[in-house]
Queue: 4 jobs
Job 1
Amino acid sequence: MPNYRVPQVFVKTGIIIFVMVVMWSCSFFGDRKKGQYIPVSFDLSKEVGPFEGLGVNVPISFYSRRMKALQSFNELGIKYIRVKREDENWNDILALRSSTSRLGIKWIYSLDAIPINYIDDSGRLVDVEGFAGWWAEEVDELLYQDVPADFIELLDAPDTSSTDSLSLTPDTYNALLHATRKELDLRNFQDVAIIGPGLSNPGITGDMETWYMNLDQQAFEFVSNWTVHMWEDRIPGEHLDPALGDLLNYLEETESTKPLFVNSYASSETNFNGVTYPDPDEYDVLGNLSTYKTYYYSATFTMPYALRVYSNTLDMLHHKQVIPFLYQLYDAPADVKYKKRSWGLLDLNGGEKPVFTLLSNLLKRVPKNSTVVRPVLSDASLNGIIFKDRTDIVLTLSNTSTEKKFIQVNLGGSSRPLEFVSGVSCHSPEILLPEHGQRDEVEILEEQVKLRLDDENDATVFSLQLKPQSIFIGEFQYK
C-alpha cells in the first residue's frame, strides 16, 4: 500500500479549522447556558422590616428532657412559645419554664376548650363573666408558680366548632375581651396582654370579617397582637404568601398597626412530586418493621415536606411585623400512641427530622438585630430571603422542584462592596418512598460562590447551581 504524506499546509489548515469549530461550539453552548440561568434579585436598600424571631408550639401534656428544649430553642432562634393548659400538667409547665427562663423567651398561654362550667349543653359560652374570672385566676396561679404569662389567647380557633375547640360568636368574643381585661386589671395584671382572635384561617370575607369589624373601639385596643392560623388546605389557592398579604392589607385599612402572630403553621400537604405520604394528623404506616429503624412514620419525616415548611416560613417572614409559630416542636408520646399524630420537628427520641435540620441551619446563622429583604423571583419552585445587619448578610434560597436550577443572584442597592464568607447546601442524597418507613437523611455540603461586579447595574452578582429539592445558605460581609 502506498505511503502518502499529507502536505504540511493541509495539516495546519485542519488544526486552525478544528480550533475555530471548538471555540464556536464553546461560545454557542456557553451563550445558551447563560440564557438558562434563572434571575433572582435582591435590593438591599429595600428592607421589609426587622426580623423579630420565630415562635413554636410546645406540647406540655408530656414534657421530656430528651427533647433538649434549651438547645432546640437556641438553634431555631425561638423568641416565643405557645403552650396550652391541660389537666394535671403543672409539673410539665414548670420543667419547661426552667428551659426558657435563661433565654428570655416570652410565653403565650392558650386554651383548646372552654371549661364546662361556663357553657350550655350545645357547647356555647353562656357565662362570659365566669370564664373571664377563670382566666384571671389562671394567670394568678401561673405567676404564683413563677411562670410568665406574657400573653394569653382566650380560645384557640373560636370560629370553629369541634370536639377540641368550642365556637364563639364575634359579639360574644367582644364581650369576653371586655370582661377578661377588667378581671386582669382588678388583680393588677396590666402587663398581661390579650392576643387574638386566633381564627382558623386568614380569610377576611363574609363571616370572617365580622371578627374584626364587630369589635368596638375599646375591645380593638385590648388586643395587643392579632393571631391567626395559616394552613394551605384552609386558604383559597393554597398559597400562604398572597393570603397573608391580603389579611395584612385588610388590617391596615382598618387602621391596625398591631403585630401579627401566625400562631400555627407548617404544611397540610402530603402529596409531593406524585408521591403521597402518610398524613401527620392520622398516619397509617408504622414504618419498616423488618429493620426496626422506626415504628411510626408520616410526611414530617421527609425532605419534600421539610422544603414546603421552609418555603412557607420564608413566605411569612417576607411581611413586616409577622411572627410565625411552628406548629409543634416535638412529637409527644400520647399524640403518637393514641391519636396517631406526628407533627413534631423532632421525633420521640429527640432526633432531628429534615424540617428541623433545614430551619436550624438557617436560623442559627441569622445576625442579631437583623432586617429582612425579600427577593424578586420568576420561578414558582424557588423561594428566598436575606437577613442583614450593618456588617453581615445571610442569604438563603430553596428549590422544591425535582430539577437542578441554574441561578444568577443579583444583589443591588448596596453602597459598599461585598465579600463571600461561607456557604452550605442541604439536600437528601435519596428521597425515600413511604414503604421504607424511614426518615430522609440530610446531607450538608460546603459551597463556594464567586462574586463579580455588574457595573452597568451597580450590583454584585454570582451564579449558583441549586440541587433538586435542596436549599442554599450563604454568608456575606460588607468590606
Job 2
Amino acid sequence: MIMDAMYEIRQIEEQAQDIRKQAMEKARDILNQAEQYGNDLVSGITQQGQQERQDFIKQAEEEAEREIEELNKKIDDECERIRHLAQDRMDEAISLVLGKVVNISGHN
C-alpha cells in the first residue's frame, strides 16, 4: 500500500513535470508569435510611413509644378504686355528721334 501511494505520487509528479514542460513550450510559442506579430506590425507601419512619405512628396512636386506653370504664365503675360508697351512707344521714340534729326539737319 505504501508502495502504491509512492508510485502514485511519482506518477503525479511526472505528470506535473510534463504539464510544466508543455506550459513552458506553449509560453515560448506565444512569445515567439507575439514577437513575430510585433515585427510584422513595425514592418507594416514602416511601409505605410514610406508610402505616405512618397505620396506626400509626389503631391508636393505636383503642387510645385502647378505653381511654376502659373508663375511662368504670369511671366509670359507680363513679358507680352511689356513687348506691346515697348512696341507702342517704339513708334513714339522713332518719331521723336526723327524729329530731332530733322530739326538738327534743318538748322545746319
Job 3
Amino acid sequence: MIHYILRRTLIAIPTLLVISFIIFAILDLAPNDPTGNLPMTVPPEVRAKIRSSLGLDEPMHIRFGLWLVQFCVNEPLNILYEGFGISIGDAENRTRIISWSTRSPVVDLIIQRTPQTLWVVGLSYLFGILIAIPIGIVSAYRQYSWFDQVGTFISMVGFSVPTFFTGMVAIIIFSVQLRWFPMIYDTTLEVDSWQNFVSQVKQMIMPVAVLALYNASQLSRFMRASILDNLNLDYVRTARSKGLSERVVLLIHVLRNSLIPVVTVIALGVPAVFGGAIITEQVFKVNGIGQLVYHRSAGATICPWSTPWHLSLPFSS
C-alpha cells in the first residue's frame, strides 16, 4: 500500500507541473496583463517601467520558474510563519505575493478570512454528509416508497435551484417575515459570552442550512445509487441465505462497500471548503475567502522590495 501511494504521488508531481505550465502559458498569451488596469493617462515610459518592475519583460520560462519557486517554497513557509508562528529561514525578508488590488500580502488575507469560511462552509459540508448518508440508505432500501419519492424531489430541488435563490428565500422568510435570524453575518462578533455564542449560532444557521441542503442533495443521490448497485449482488444474497438479519446485511456488508465511491466524492469536495462558497458568502455577507475572491479578483505580484526584479503571477487573490 505504501509503495502504491508513493508511486501515485510521484506520478502526480510531473502531472501537476505540466498542468500548471499549460495554465501559465495560456494566461501569458492573453492579450492583457496587470498593467492593463492602469489609467490611460499613465505615460508609456512609466508604464514600461512598471512592466519591468513586475518582471513582465522577462521570458516566460524564467517567470514560470520564479512563480514555481514562490508557490511551492516561499508561500508555504509564509503560511507557516503567519498562521502558526513557525519561522524557517529569513521569514522577515522572504519574497511575498502581493495582491494587485489591495497591495497587501495574499497569505495574510487568506489567513484572516479562512476561519469564517471554515465555520460556515466547513460545517455545512459536515452537516450535508451527516444528512445525506442516512437519507441515501433509507431511500435505496425502500426504493419507490413515499420516503424515496419525497427524498428524490427534495434532492432534485436542492441540487437544481441555485444557492443565491434559496439564500434570498431564507432571508425573506426567516429574517424579514419571521425575524428569527439576522439578515447579515456579523464577522466582527467575538464569542466571549453565552449571549454572543447564541448570536453566533443564530447568524450561522441560514448560510449553513443553504449550503448543507445543496451538498446533501448531491451526496444523497450518490449514496442511493451506490446502495442500489450493491443490494442485488451475489455477496448480499449469500449473507441473507446464512440467516443474517436485514440490519446486519445492510449496515455491515452493503454499507461498507457502498461507501467507497461516496467517500471518494466527499474527499474530492473537501478542497472546495477551503475555497469558500462565493455566491452564498456574498448573499449573507460572510467575510470569508469566497467573498474575498469575488471582491478582490485581480492579479497578484511579487513584492517590489523583496527582489531586484519581479514577476506577475497568473492567479487571483
Job 4
Amino acid sequence: MPAVVKQPHRKYCQFCKNDTKYIDYKDTQMLRKFVTDRGKIKPRRVTGCCTQHQRMVAQAVKRAREMALMPYAVSTVSNRGDRRHKRG
C-alpha cells in the first residue's frame, strides 16, 4: 500500500485576490496582521503574500512606524535580571 503524501495548503496572496493596487500605511488595523506581537514584520512564508505585495506591506509598516502610527518595538516584561540580585 503506497504512503499517502499530504500536500500543504497553498497560501494565496489576499491582496492579489482583492486586486489591491496600493497598501495604505494609515490602515494600522490591517497592518497589524503582518507584524508580530513584538513589532517585527512577518516573513512572506508566514503571511502568504506574493513578493510584490510583501514589499508593499513592509514599506507601509515602515512608513506607519515613521509617522508614529505603529511602534518600532514593543516593551517586554522580563524576569531575567532578577536572578542576579536574589541571595538565598
